[in-house]
Design brief:
alpha+beta; RNA-binding; globular; about 650 residues; 20 helices
RNA sequence: GCCGUUGUAGCUCAGUGGUAGAGCGCUUCCUUGGUAAGGAAGAGGUCACGAGUUCAACUCUCGUCAAUGGCUCCA
């Protein structure tokens, strides 16, 4: 007999050699039906693998993250099996599960494959599911593994096996399809009740753009049809919120081929929205002791040689601008930091001047490969809500905390409720990738960790993701439908102060090197507005939205009164327009609702006589009538309440 | 940059080797209507661009550009 410890701490006795399925069955039949695999002494095991010693066992179902991982990983095998049957001779790369679903990289040889083939593959997968094929694990020696795939002619698997250690290699077989795989897997394919192949893309073998490009097929599966339907609905919802679509519909921004790809053009409504965001941040920053500066859009090549950016990125930048006579070279500004370093260097500093916080909405230009461009989130010209803080080592942590406070205030104001802070540290085994002394790195990393802890941030740590000049903290927010976006960033930099030879006189009357903090709470205006559009679905908060209210006269007879109301409200800082078309009220309401305008003001005979307005709220309905002043107060107090809730 | 897909009216999209279509929007007229679509008429297109095949190309082929889904990249 062996002792099995379950997650609730209870210990049960079983015959030696029992498997996790039978353990599940001994608990309940329902559990046994739903269990995929088990965590045995912290390792993931297949259900049917016998347990011969005392162990701690956690049964894994769909409700566990590991369960989804197993489910989708098995689904990748299922798809590969179907593909192998339909396209004999194809070769397989890797086929992992991903955050939602799975993919498999396939070398389709001479087969021409397109999304039209998905139906065929899905049908074959369903057919295999109906057979409830068992998935069988087999331990093989490295020699056996190599010989199998060499014989099969699959050089990708052979390459993978070469990197593995003998004695750790397992195969998984379903039907005639055999794959190199660590597992674990579902006990059989019968669990996979709903299948959808989503898209198809090129993907380099092992992510190396010099190597062969395989065809990657993405798919998603679920244990219940209903869950697939819900997922597809979510995709629909995401499509509706797409900032590129809404940005066009709401006339916020546009692109022009003649102006150039990846160069967003802000239309009046979008520009006004952006300006409100900028003013909001400027006001906050002023309270935190920042000073605004303005720098030119180009910089002499020497500036970037000093900063080191020329050496690192010069070849991948827009080509330099040269003067016709003197042969000077300028680069379009790809970041604001070197300019700001020169501002610091423009006069001597005492420790009493620090921290110096200089801020700029700085427009920068970066060459991005054409295939990278995406709406407002990846562009070639954008404006950073940038600032650089020059401080003493003693001030670093406090300054860092203050930046976190600004970011938290912004998130709160803009209703981003869920977020995590990703702390990127350097890879200690790869120190040559970074510059600066161990001591400084240690100090900077400690400062970030302490600051994050002090502000109670929910953090994740990524080793090796630091910038080459220092560690950083990036905020990842979850939007209203659960998608993750990277927004603000805070970085600690020991490098640029060194390169620009920046210094201050300390209390000891000696020269010291300041530390620089780079920070952009929004990231960039473009990216932030894009995320805001997708987060709100275009229903911006009242203080930001382009049009806060629209006046709908019941008929042309009340046009004059409508104009009077419009004038009065505008004077009280309400952004209001009039729908003066000769349409019925129902039509005007419908259009205003579709335009996502927060308030509709209906005026007719009754309102004109009473000198009042009838209000309808977007997505809510009729709010009844009130005075014009009353409505302006309603709107302005709502905004005030939100913006003063620090 | 690489692989796949797409490109028809301002927008969303049908369509065919033989004179270019719908809905919405726009203009004009009728209607003056009280909380999600009143009616009629009209304007609007080098079918992304360039070559080729053909008696004939928006349609087929090739190329270019752009958008798009990924990959790689992201100071």
């Amino acid at each position: 007999m062996i002792n099995i410890t379950l997650p609730d701490g209870s210990v049960r006795q079983y015959q030696k050699g029992i498997n996790s399925y039978d353990i599940a069955l001994s608990i309940s039949e329902g559990l046994a039906r739903n269990v995929f695999a088990a965590e045995v002494n912290k390792a993931m095991w297949d259900l049917e693998r016998p347990i011969n010693n005392d162990a701690t066992v956690r049964l894994i179902t769909w409700n566990d993250d590991e369960g989804k991982d197993i489910f989708w990983h098995t689904s990748a095998h299922l798809m590969a099996e179907a593909i192998e049957i339909l396209y004999p001779g194809v070769k397989f790369g890797i086929g992992p599960s991903i955050e939602t679903g799975f993919y498999y990289d396939v070398d389709f040889l001479d087969y021409a494959i397109s999304s039209d083939d998905f139906k065929k593959i899905e049908d074959k997968m369903a057919e295999l599911v109906a057979q409830k094929q068992p998935i069988v694990r087999k331990e093989v020696s490295k020699a056996e593994a190599l010989s199998y795939f060499e014989k099969k002619g699959d050089e990708y698997k052979v390459e993978l096996i070469r990197d593995l250690e003998d004695g750790t290699i397992t195969f998984y077989q379903s039907g005639d399809f055999v794959d190199l795989c660590r597992g674990p897997h579902l006990p059989n394919m019968g669990f996979i009740k709903a299948i959808k192949l989503l898209n198809l893309a090129g993907a380099y073998w092992r992510g190396d753009e010099k190597r062969k490009q395989l065809t990657r097929i993405y798919g998603v599966t679920f244990p219940k049809k209903k869950e697939l339907d819900e997922y597809l609905l979510l995709l629909e919802e995401a499509k509706k919120r797409d900032h590129r679509k809404l940005g066009k519909e709401m006339e916020l921004f546009t692109f022009s081929q003649k102006v150039g790809v990846g160069l967003p053009i802000w239309l009046p409504k979008g520009a006004a929205l952006r300006e409100r965001l900028e003013n909001f941040l400027k006001k906050v920053q002023k309270e935190y002791g920042y000073q605004q500066v303005i720098c030119p859009h180009i910089g002499n090549v020497e500036l970037y040689k000093t900063s080191g950016h020329f050496q690192k990125y010069g070849a991948d930048s827009f080509r330099p601008i040269t003067t016709p006579q003197e042969g000077e070279e300028f680069f379009l500004k790809p970041m604001n930091c070197p300019h700001h370093c020169e501002i610091y260097a423009s006069k001597p500093h005492s420790y009493k001047d620090l921290p110096l916080r200089i801020a700029e909405f700085g427009t920068v230009y970066r060459y991005e490969q054409s295939g990278e461009l995406h709406g407002l989130t990846r562009v070639r010209g954008f404006t950073q809500d940038d600032a650089h803080i020059f401080c003493t080592p003693e001030q670093l942590e406090e300054e860092f905390c203050k930046v976190i406070d600004i970011v938290l205030y912004i998130f709160k104001t803009l209703d981003f409720k869920e977020f995590t802070a990703q702390i990127s540290l350097r890879d200690p085994d790869n120190k040559e990738k970074y510059i600066g002394s161990d001591e400084n790195w240690q100090k900077a990393e400690d400062a970030i960790m302490h600051a994050a802890k002090q502000r109670n941030l929910n953090t994740t740590v990524e080793i090796g993701e630091a910038a080459f000049y220092g560690p950083k903290l990036d905020f990842m927010v979850k939007d209203a439908i659960g998608r993750k976006w990277q927004l603000g960033t805070i970085q600690v930099d020991y490098n640029l102060p060194e390169r620009f030879d920046l210094e201050y006189i300390g209390s000891d009357n000696l020269k010291h090197r300041p530390i620089m903090i780079h920070r952009a709470p929004f990231g960039s205006m473009e990216r932030f507005v894009a995320v805001l559009i997708e987060h709100t679905g275009g229903n911006f908060p009242l203080w930001l939205t382009p049009t806060q209210a629209i006046i709908l006269p019941i008929s042309d007879k009340y046009q004059e009164y409508a104009e009077e109301v419009c004038k009065k409200l505008s004077k009280m800082d309400v952004r209001v327009t009039i729908d003066d078309r000769s349409e019925k009220t129902g039509k005007k309401i419908r259009d205003a609702e579709l335009q996502k305008i927060p308030y509709m003001i209906i005026v007719g005979e009754k309102e004109m006589n009473e000198n009042s307005v009838s209000i309808r709220q977007h997505g809510v309905g009729d709010l009844g009538s009130m005075t014009i002043d009353g409505f302006a107060t309603l709107i302005n107090s709502q905004i005030e309440e939100l913006l003063s809730s620090e």
